Amino acid sequence: MSRAAALLTALVLLLTGCADARSGTLGPAPTAAPPGSPPTGAPVAVPSPPTGTPAGPTRTARPAPPPASTRSATPAPTGSVTVQLWFTRDRTLTPTRRTRPATVATSRLALDELATGPTAAEAAAGLATLVPPGIEVVRVADGTATIAAHPSLADTDTPTVRLRRAQIVWTLTQFPTVRRVAFTDPDVVLGRADLADVLAPILVTEPTVGQRVGTPVTVAGTADVYEATVSIRILDATGRVVGAGFTTATCGSGCRGDYRAGIAYRLPRAGPGTVEVYEVSPEDGSRTHLVSVAVTLAATG
After folding, report:
1. What is the per-residue pLDDT across 167-176, written as a single tens digit (0 to 9) for each?
2. Contact 84/205 with Cβ under 8 angstroms?
3. pLDDT tens column, 195-254
4. At what angle do helices 159-172 and 106-116 cross, to 10 degrees?
5. C-beta separation of 175 from 107 below 8 A
6. Phi/psi at 202 (5° precision)
7. Are 184 and 197 in contact (CB under 8 A)?
8. What number does CATH give the domain 202-297?
9. Which of 16, 197, 203, 272 keeps 20 to 30 A from 222, CA to CA?
10. pTM of the model
C-alpha cells in the first residue's frame, strides 16, 4: 500500500470513531411520495387487527335514542250513534231509540240512557224504566256481557227484577258482540229467548214516539197474532183516520214474526198524529193488542 493510501484510510477511521452513536444512519435519500399516500401531516389509517387477534380497549358508543313512535292514539269517534232502548209499558217491554254523539263505549251509553229514562213524550205514552243508575258491564267475552253486582239485581226473581233484567238483556243484545247477559249475585245468564214472555203480542220498533214521519209511513216490528195479520191506521190530531192498511208477519198464531209496511196518508197541514198497530179479533172484529205511537205527521200537500 502506498503512503498516500495509508494516510487516507487512517483519516476515515478517525472520523468514524468520532461520530455520535445516537445518530444512526441517514438512510436513503427522500423521494416523492408514492401515488395514493396521505399528504404530510395527515393521519394515517391503522389497519384493523386480523381475525382472532384481540382488539385493544375501545370506547363503547352510546346507543342512539329509539325513534319516536309512529303509532298514534286511537282517534275519538266522530259523528253519531243510534241505540235501541227497551223501556216498560203495562208490565211489558217496548222499544225506542236514542241518537247520541258517537262513542266506543256503546254498552255504557245504552245502560246510562236506560237509567236516564223516557223523554216527556215517551212518559206521556206510558213508557217507564226500572233500571237505576250504576249498572255497569265489567267485561264482554265469548258473546256474554257480564254485569257487575248491584243491589237492584240481587233480589229474588220477582216480576219487577225480571222486567229490569229484561230491559238490560234486550238492550245489550242489540250489539253484535253480545248474545246473552250474565248477572252475578245470584249468578244467572239470560238471552232474549229466556225473556220472550215479557214482550207484548205486538211490538212497534218503527216509528218511535215523537218521530216526524212522512207519507208513506214505514211501520215495522214483530208480532204474534192470529194468522200473522197486522193492521195499521194513521190518525190526525182529531183522531180522524187519514191512512190505513195491513201486512202479514213472517210468523203468527203461536210464533213471533217480523213485519214491515209502508202506509200512505193524506194530510193538508203538518201536525200531531198517531200510528195505531193492532190485531183484528177473529171473534168480533174488534181491535185488540192495540199499540199507539204518537208522531208528527208531515203535510202531503
Report:
1. 999 999 999 9
2. yes
3. 999 999 999 999 999 999 999 999 999 999 999 999 999 999 999 999 999 999 999 888
4. 140
5. yes
6. -125, 125
7. no
8. 2.60.40.2550
9. 272
10. 0.72
